[in-house]
UniProtKB/TrEMBL annotation:
Domain of life where this protein originates: Eukaryota
PANTHER family reported for this sequence: SAD1/UNC-84-LIKE PROTEIN-RELATED, SUN DOMAIN-CONTAINING PROTEIN 1
Alphabetic keyword roster: Membrane, Transmembrane, Transmembrane helix
Keyword Ion transport: no
Compartments, as annotated in UniProt: Nucleus inner membrane
Name of the molecule in the record: SUN1 protein
Cellular-component GO terms for this entry: meiotic nuclear membrane microtubule tethering complex; nuclear inner membrane
Main localization category: nucleus
Length: 88
């Protein structure tokens, strides 16, 4: 609901997966990722921010593979909200 430390959905460890199920099929053109800025971090760093991530399109949530839509890098020195165009 906001960008305050602790009000997030955190992954445990260094690897995680997220599946978003939509009500209809879409053809995305871009994705956004947002993380708190360093200035709001109690420790003064955002080392917990995701760095390398991939986005796949799936036909259903049980599909093991999918269509790779892009591989991206979140720039921890950049803006908190970053947009990544679909690469495929």
């Amino acid at each position: 609901p906001d960008m305050y430390p602790g009000n997030c959905w955190a992954f445990k460890g260094s690897l995680g997966y997220l599946v978003v199920r939509l009500s209809m099929k879409i053809y995305p053109t871009a994705f956004t990722m947002e993380h708190i800025p360093k200035t709001l971090s109690p420790s003064g760093n955002i080392s917990s921010a995701p760095r390398n991530f991939s986005v796949y399109g799936l036909d259903d949530e049980y599909q093991e593979g999918g269509t790779l839509l892009g591989q991206y890098v979140y720039d921890q020195g950049g803006e908190p909200l970053q947009m990544f165009p679909v690469m495929v």
